[in-house]
DNA sequence: TTAGGGTTAG
């Protein structure tokens, strides 16, 4: 469309650039650009924008920026295209910085610019900046624009300000599938699963249309509640809708079944997928790991490596190491970590991987080795690593290491009641009653309280929540009988 | 010509 009436050369360049954008073909795109320069062709504004988009899609941010910088006069479309490139590639600071430069150049942002720039308003500073942008948006009466509004509510939700997100959502005069999904997902991502489902129910009654993204978000909320029956209903509904294959939705189903404890269903979905992403593999590996199925984890990881179609990432290795640790396969886990250190997996170990190794050694009762490993780590150990070791010291009654680790933990996180309890129990185990009492006194002094652990169960599509020794629920006897049957 | 929602871990 844009090519009409602008000459053959324009049409040719337009066609070539669009093909390069589609295929993310950097080299070919660069050759098209070079041809324009060699033949002294002055590209139309449209083609310059396409060049920015092309370089952005090919991850060549410097080249994209050069196209922008070389323009003698920049209009709002150029600026927005470049801000969008930064934003989509995760360069939030650069996106906001360019937005400021745009304002300084007296170019007025439009609804496209606001929609784009709000995606980069993350983190404390980004959020503060986003709030100022919100004021500006209100002044320009763009806050009820469906695209701008969706980006605004997402910014608030990502900052944990769900009430403000909801206000923006409710104030939208018209809601579409994206804005509805954004608010449902906002609740789900903050762990407000019941609220997410309630809103989904309400919006459905009001005639909302759902698509595969909506169902993926709803499944996230159901996973958080471990609501298997409702999850099955959503799955059946999705099947009845005959939606085309979407890897994201299938990944959500794998995760939902795994979090609800049904690994057989998860694996069935995984096996039947015509294509998988690294997240599909990770969801399945995490499922096995969390259920202590070390053998399945290692077997699936081998399959992934043998297939050689999907590269493992940091989460893959975390899941594998975690699975080995919880599945009693410490030697295999240590070997895999060793391969990581040699660079054979293409993933550089970070502190969380080191933490898994501490956990591997701790759970295997190799307390002294775990202690030495922590001391040699190239990272400053956090409460997570010390915490794994303290638990192991308690289980394996290692008072010497445990005392050091426990004291260290009380310094790092004095508000964590669990550490006081474990240290006190450790002293008690060793017959050091005075020290055990002292730790309990310290707990009282600091007003630290241990919350009772909670568990929940789904009966007839209703979730019932309990804490230890809780008999206040009207149906507790029924639940108790079920738990007894399940040996929980 | 530039725009919004999604899946794994923590």
Automatic annotation (TrEMBL):
Protein name, as recorded: Pentatricopeptide repeat-containing protein
**Which PANTHER family does the record match to this protein?**
(WILD MALAYSIAN BANANA) HYPOTHETICAL PROTEIN, PENTATRICOPEPTIDE REPEAT-CONTAINING PROTEIN
**Which residues constitute the signal peptide according to the record?**
none
Q: Enumerate the NCBIfam families for this protein.
A: PPR
Any idea which UniProt keywords this protein has?
A: Repeat
Concerning PROSITE patterns, the annotation shows: PPR (PS51375)
In terms of Pfam families, this protein maps to: E_motif, PPR, PPR_1, PPR_2
* UniProt cross-references to InterPro entries, sorted A to Z: E_motif, PPR_At4g14850-like_plant, PPR_rpt, TPR-like_helical_dom_sf
Where do the PPR repeats lie? Answer: 75-109, 176-210, 277-311
């Amino acid at each position: 469309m844009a090519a009409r009436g602008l000459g053959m050369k324009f049409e040719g360049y337009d066609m070539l650039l669009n093909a390069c954008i589609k295929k993310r073909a950097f080299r070919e795109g660069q050759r098209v650009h070079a041809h324009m320069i060699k033949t002294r062709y002055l590209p139309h504004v449209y083609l310059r924008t396409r060049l920015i988009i092309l370089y952005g899609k090919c991850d060549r941010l410097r080249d994209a920026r050069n196209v922008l910088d070389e323009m003698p006069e920049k209009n709002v479309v150029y600026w927005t295209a470049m801000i969008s490139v930064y934003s989509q590639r995760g360069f939030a600071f650069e996106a906001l910085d360019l937005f400021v430069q745009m304002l300084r150049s007296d170019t007025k942002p439009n609804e496209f610019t606001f929609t784009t720039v709000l995606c980069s308003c993350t983190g404390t500073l980004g959020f503060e900046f986003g709030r100022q942008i919100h004021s500006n948006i209100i002044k320009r009466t763009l806050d009820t624009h469906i695209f701008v509004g969706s980006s605004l509510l997402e910014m608030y939700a990502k900052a944990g300000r769900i009430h403000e997100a909801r206000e923006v959502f409710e104030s939208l005069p018209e809601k579409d599938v994206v804005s509805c999904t954004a608010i449902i997902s906002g609740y789900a991502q903050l762990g407000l699963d019941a609220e997410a489902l309630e809103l989904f129910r309400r919006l459905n009654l009001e005639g909302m249309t759902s698509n595969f993204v909506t169902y993926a978000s709803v499944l996230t909320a159901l996973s958080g509640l471990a609501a298997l029956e409702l999850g099955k209903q959503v799955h059946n509904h999705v099947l009845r809708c005959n939606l085309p294959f979407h890897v994201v939705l299938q990944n959500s189903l794998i995760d939902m079944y795994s979090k609800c404890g049904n690994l057989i269903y998860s694996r069935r979905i995984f096996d039947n997928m015509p294509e998988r992403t690294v997240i599909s593999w990770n969801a399945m590996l995490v499922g096995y790991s969390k259920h202590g199925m070390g053998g399945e984890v290692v077997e699936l990881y081998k399959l992934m490596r043998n297939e050689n179609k999907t590269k493992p990432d940091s989460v893959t290795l975390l899941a594998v190491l975690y699975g080995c640790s919880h599945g009693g396969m410490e030697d295999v886990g240590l070997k895999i970590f060793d391969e990581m250190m040699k660079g054979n997996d293409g993933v550089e170990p970070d502190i969380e991987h080191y933490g898994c190794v501490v956990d591997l050694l701790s759970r295997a009762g190799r307390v002294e080795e775990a202690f030495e490993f922590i001391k040699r780590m190239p990272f400053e150990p956090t409460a997570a690593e010390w915490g794994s070791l303290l638990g192991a010291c308690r289980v394996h009654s290692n008072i010497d290491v445990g005392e050091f680790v426990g004291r260290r933990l009380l310094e790092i996180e004095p508000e964590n009641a669990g550490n006081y309890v474990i240290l006190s129990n450790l002293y008690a185990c060793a017959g050091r009653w005075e020290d055990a009492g002292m730790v309990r006194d310290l707990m009282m002094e600091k007003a630290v309280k241990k919350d009772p652990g909670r568990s929940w169960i789904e009966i007839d599509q209703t979730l019932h929540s309990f804490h230890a020794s809780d008999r206040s629920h009207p149906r507790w006897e029924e639940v108790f009988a079920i738990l007894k049957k399940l040996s929980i």
